[in-house]
Amino acid sequence: MPTTSAILKDHGIRPTPQRRVVLEYVRASDQHPTAEDIYAHVHRRRASVSRATVYNTLHLLVDHGLVRRLVLAGGTVAFDARVHPHHHFVDERTGEVQDIPFEALRIEGVEALSAFDVEHVQVVVYGRKKSDKGG
Predict the structure, then answer these.
(1) Residue 134 — pLDDT band, cuts 50, 70, 90?
(2) 66: which DSSP letter?
(3) Which residue from 5, 65, 79, 113 could staple onto 15, CB 3.0 to 4.6 Å apart?
(4) What structural domains and CATH numbers belong to the chain?
């Protein structure tokens, strides 16, 4: 498995310690952390990392295809190192985000977008476990 430095270099990004620690955290996370989650973790490990550095690094990683930006309800932005096509389920009670395989959902009516170059499709499904609804 390539090192974080090698991955960054392969994508044309200089592998600074700050960039490495941000990418390592997002790649190791089984969650979909927000920029603030990432900042809190990275700041604990490297107190010299600023919030601006974390945000700038995340934008750089998204721009180079190493991380996906996921916009959730209320405009919350989370980050996902799994960049292969897939969808998400958000538990409205806990806020937990789970991956849904791309082929699990069927998308219809895409021909209506024939005048556009569609770069990717992402569906976010919101709900709760049936046992959590009460009643």
Answers:
(1) low
(2) S
(3) 5
(4) 4-78 (1.10.10.10), 84-132 (3.30.1490.190)
Tokens 């604990």, residue?
Answer: 44
Cα distances from 64 to residues 38, 42, 60, 69, 104, in angstroms, run 18, 21, 6, 12, 27
Could you tell me where the beta strands, DSSP code E, fall in 42-111? Answer: 68-71, 77-80, 86-91, 97-101
| pLDDT tens per residue across span 19-50 | 999 999 999 998 899 999 999 999 988 778 99
pLDDT tens digit sequence for 46-100: 778 999 999 999 999 999 999 999 988 788 899 999 998 889 998 888 888 889 9
CB contact at 8 A, 66 and 80: no
42 and 22 Cβ atoms separated by less than 8 Å: yes
Q: For residues 128 and 92, is the Cβ–Cβ distance under 8 A?
A: yes
Each residue of 35-47: b (16+ CB within 10 Å) or e? bebbbebbbeeee
